[in-house]
Amino acid sequence: MLKTPAPEPIQKQIETSEDDFFRGEFSALQPLRIGHRSGLDALLIAAGLPLDAKGVVVDLGSGSGVAGMAAACSNPALNVVLVEKNKLMVGLATKSLALAKNKAIAPRLKVLEADIMLSGLAREKQGLIPNMADYVIMNPPYNHEGQRASPDKVKAEAHVMGVSGLDSWMRTAAAILKPGGIMIMIYRTEKLGEVIASSTGRFGGLSIIPVHSKVNEVAKRLIFKMKKGSRAPLKMLPPLIVHDGKGGPTAKADKLLNGDARLSF
Hints:
The protein is built from nine helices and 13 strands. The protein is of the alpha/beta class and 265 residues long.
């Protein structure tokens, strides 16, 4: 009887790159030809955390862990839980923590393989415990099932929301946050109504920063800060312009993306 060969180690299955962030302060292994590569969005949600952030931050849908590692690098009093269900990305995040450049932050990071879409006891059994977090950061998939998706299954999983939509992500975020806990997320502008609807009864005090690629372009993304249980009204804040029109980042964006500044909510 033929035996099924054991799967090859992840580094032999896919081609990866070791990418530096924060001007070389930390590095992450990311897939080169398949899957999702983190960048601007991940760094911006990490920049949404306050200067005095401490306790536990949970990065939901963490991918290779860039946002969570940026949060740990910027906030020495934070412990970070990287939550991801895709085994390939879980493997990359785990290997990233073993990189030499991440030696200083690795003791404060934990990788948790779990499905954000679960609820109740099923979610708890995977390690997502009620009131475990002081902060949640997340960059949920912005497409829905039925919309055009990448033929790359790993990338499609990162970009396409399940049938229950954003509500499942918001439900999990609210469940694991402590009362008064803060959630930072980035999402597509056209999904604003969905964000407001799924935050109702869970979060309040929404502060929104529109993100414009260039000065004369419409905002394609919004960064949200919201507080669990708050009844404070929504605020629309001044926009963030990412590129200066000369091929580089604006001075403000450069500081935000390299851990030298925080978003002003």
